[in-house]
Amino acid sequence: MIDTNCLIASIPRHNPEYWLYRAFREGVFDWVISNEILTEYEEKLADFYSTQTANIVINILLTSSNVILTEPFFKYGLIVHDPDDNKFADLAIAANVDFLVTNDRHFRVLKEIPFPAINLVSLDEFQQLLMY
């Protein structure tokens, strides 16, 4: 699953992080989302780029075969310093994802929590893991 900041960085073709979009498009990994995360993606993309870009990205996510839409039913509240990030941690647990990909320092607390375990990796580490 991919944090919003990583998504934002992966959109421009000239950004080094564009590899993430290419890997997704080629079906190298599944992208796990929830309605709450889709809403955040849409809001942040519209603020950072434009409403049109946000709509295109959301449409791609909603129509791609390698997207898993699921909803967490329990709120763990593991990230205290930025509670808005908990939606990613909660979904990572509910969907039993292999990796939560983020460069956001607020997520680092998850590395210190033995249960429920969340495998946190940076965008660079994810690229190395995928060997992409």
Keywords:
single chain, 132 residues, globular, 6 helices, two-stranded parallel ribbon, mainly alpha
Q: Which overall shape is indicated by the principal axes computed on the Cα atoms?
A: globular
Gyration radius from CA atoms, angstroms? 14 Å
Main β-sheet: number of strands, strand sense, barrel status?
Answer: 2 strands, parallel
Number of helices: 6
Count of distinct strands: 4
Low-confidence stretches: none
In terms of structural class, how would the helical and strand content be classed? mainly alpha
Describe this structure in words.
The protein is mainly alpha-helical and 132 residues long. The chain has helices spanning 4-9, 19-25, 35-48, 51-63, 86-94, 123-130, and strands at residues 31-33, 67-69, 100-101, 120-121. It has a two-stranded parallel sheet. The longest helix is centred in the N-terminal third of the chain and has 14 residues, at 35-48.
Reconstruct the topology from this structure.
Layout: H1 4-9, H2 19-25, E1 31-33, H3 35-48, H4 51-63, E2 67-69, H5 86-94, E3 100-101, E4 120-121, H6 123-130
Parallel strand pairs: 1-2, 3-4
Helix pairs in contact: 3-4
At a glance:
The protein has 6 helices and 4 strands. By secondary structure, it is mainly alpha-helical.
